[in-house]
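User: Here's a chain of 284 residues. Predict its fold as tokens.
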Amino acid sequence: MIELEGLPELVDPVLIAAFEGWNDAGEASSGVLAHLETEWKATPLVELDPEDYYDFQVTRPIVELGEGMTRSITWPTTRLLVARPPGAKRDVVLLRGIEPNMRWRSFCAEIVGLCHDLGVELALLLGALLNDSPHTRPVPIVGSVSDPGLARVLNLDLTKYEGPTGIVGVLQHSLGSAGLQAVSLWASIPHYVAQPPNPKATLALLRRVEDMLDIPMPYGDLTEEARAWETGVDELASQDSEVAEYVRELEERKDAAELPEASGDAIAAEFERYLRRRDRGTDG
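Assistant: Prediction complete.
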């Protein structure tokens, strides 16, 4: 177990976590963590020992060339960083890693211990999955919670999924069992355009995190990248009549399933988000 020494006292810290791998269709969820780490200039806190949790024949280290043709090796691991977002009154701990290959229960116990040491009481875990969602519609976000009452407070659509799970599901269970509030958010990625990156889904997750935490999120270039991504998929779909017809079928199915009040809720949520960002002077 890692012991943290010389750690600055954090203010009401919240954890945001994502893992590359099975839980990360289109790299949408790990894209959120990469974006926030860069935009917030997050400071490294600690990284877990990769020897304990990774099979290097499955998740291989990466060799890179630096100045003077010197080689360095980056080992697969999970890292924790901390940031104080501009305009926020609390600290954010970012947990960014790769889904471990083994010893998941020990891995989760170590994360839970670190959360207790840091004073984290709320954790948001991000994921993305492949679905039959049309790329032309808003990205569906569903979730699960450790406390059913939390779903009502957060106005979260709960998933009814049962079946195999990844490290996001196991870690959420471990955090909840340890007395922390744990929420997982899942973005639905169109299965016919699964290759990464998917900035539209990353942006949708980022906006949902902003709504839940009431912390201004830096969109940066994501808004324009999401528009360009959708335009590019439109152009590719238009070149294949079968794909274009399939997308139209998905659109019709999606529109028929959407209740009018659901669309109204989405518009209201977007307007409230705009007002908050305007009041903070962060709206672009």
